[in-house]
Amino acid sequence: MGDVARLRFAEDFTATLRPEPESVGGKVCRVLDLKAKSPNAAYPQVVLWWNEAERLPARVLFLLPSGKEAKQVTFTKFSRKAGKTIVSEMEIRDLLSRDPHTVTRLEYTDYRPAKLDDALFTPEGAKGL
To answer: What DSSP letter does each residue of 6-47 carry, written as one string?
Structure first.
């Protein structure tokens, strides 16, 4: 999941707003089509559903260079910590697996602001944990 965790949408992608909103979990969302700035990006296309009323992301869909859907992340819970709204739970679906209905649920039970070295999100860096 390091390929997804290290993405910085505002820095790594350019965005195009779709004219019509869509519903995610019963909430109206704006839809942004994101195109990677780097031709070497693992996911050159990303779709982001943004709950404009709550000013929070609702879902992200990652596509391979071929256009095939690879991963879907749904943000299911948010909380307030240290004066900031943070993701406290998300569900990840690997759409390329044998069973794309299998869900990995990440729940963040502790939050402490810290600066993490970008190398941590590489296979070599993760081995050091």
So the answer is: T--HHHHEEEEE-SS-EEETTEEEEEEEEEESSTT-S-SEEE
